[in-house]
Write a structure and sequence with these properties.
Elements lengths: L3 E5 L4 E5 L1 H6 L5 E5 L6 H17 L3 E5 L6 H9 L6 E7 L1 H7 L12 E17 L7 H10 L5 E4 L5 H13 L4 E4 L3 H9 L5 E5 H9 L3 E7 L24 E9 L4 H15 L2 H9 L4 E5 H24 L1
Parallel strand pairs: 3-4, 3-5, 7-8, 7-9
Antiparallel strand pairs: 1-2, 5-11, 6-9, 6-10, 6-11, 6-12
Helix pairs in contact: 2-9, 2-10
Length: 320
């Protein structure tokens, strides 16, 4: 019989697997479904984690990319997988939340359709412009967008993405109004901004950091309460007197609903060990991804909070 015991860690329950499960599971390789294209931040983070997780579980861990329909195809395949612990999935917040909340999506799963294990990344949102943009500060941008509502164009990486919700947050907080342009990923954003076709972009630290360091773009603000360790010279929206404009993309690991509790416990322990290694920290920092581990009740509380915020702005977006 597989048993489990739990110890309380800082801010969350840390599951400790019994010796029995170490013998019975896993008996073969695992796969992590990433509902995005290869080469993007989600894929890169998952592959870094997979290589380290292999050492903890003693089996191969293969990343499988399943992009399409704004992550819905990959998420659908993941939640439909056999709940035996051999198929894990990357869950993005609030992207997963807005997919669930949008009635036009007609998803086969709800917020309880999977089980959250450990969050790996919290990638703060950023508001950025071309390096030679006339907008030097976020205040400059907001003032212009208020003076001529709808004139300035602002782009996202997708409809109802965290970037889209961030624009709605900024508009609500300031009274500014942008002409929103939706793209399918960061690559199209850079082409449009650097080509002078769009005025401002909303994205994340992980996507923008290297170009900002190279002087190609100017970051007006990081949408977080604290300065990013990977972009310490950029002010936060909280510092700039916009405390309600807080946005990020989190990426964590989940398993399908019905996965045995003892298997969940084993995976939580293995994931936490892999994410706690110096090698994981170094590799993630090198690619511009901030590690923010959450598990247990802490992770579920975070999900519920994001879901509530996403519901508000999803409804607002659908009315536009």
């Amino acid at each position: 019989m597989i048993s489990r015991r739990t110890l309380l860690g800082t801010g969350a329950a840390v599951a400790v697997a019994s010796p029995a499960i170490a013998q019975e599971y896993p008996r073969r390789g695992l796969q992590i479904i990433v509902p995005a294209n290869a080469g993007g931040p989600s894929d890169i983070g998952a592959r870094i984690l997979a290589s380290l997780l292999e050492k903890e579980v003693g089996q191969s861990v293969v990343v499988v990319n399943k992009p399409g329909a704004g992550a819905q195809l990959g998420l659908t395949e993941f939640v439909r997988s056999r709940p035996d612990g051999y198929t894990l999935g990357v869950v993005h917040l609030p992207g997963t939340n807005t997919i669930i909340l949008d009635p036009e999506r007609k998803t086969i799963f709800g917020p309880d359709g999977f089980i959250l294990l450990v969050n790996q990344v919290l990638d703060p949102g950023v508001i950025w412009v071309k390096a030679d943009s006339p907008f030097k500060t976020l205040a400059d941008l907001v003032a212009a967008a208020k003076k001529e509502p709808g004139k300035l164009s602002a782009c996202t990486t997708g409809i109802l993405s965290d970037d889209h919700l961030a624009i709605l947050m900024l508009e609500e907080a300031t009274g500014a109004k942008f002409r929103v342009v939706h793209f399918d990923g960061a690559a199209q954003q850079f082409t449009a901004i650097l080509g002078g076709h769009v005025d401002v972009a909303f994205d994340n630290v992980g996507s923008v950091r290297k170009r900002a360091m190279a002087g190609e773009v100017r970051v007006l603000a990081v949408m977080d309460n604290e300065r990013s360790k990977l972009m310490p010279d950029s002010p936060t929206t909280k510092e700039l007197s916009f405390p309600t404009v807080i946005s990020s993309s989190t990426r964590g690991i989940a398993v399908p609903k019905g996965t045995p509790p003892a298997v969940q416990a084993y995976l939580v322990t293995a994931l936490q060990k892999a994410m706690s290694t110096p090698e994981h920290a170094a590799k993630m920092a090198d690619v511009g991804l901030e590690v923010r581990m959450m598990s247990g009740a802490e992770y579920q509380k975070y999900f519920d909070n994001v879901h509530a915020i996403a519901k508000k702005y999803t409804e607002a977006a659908r009315k536009q």
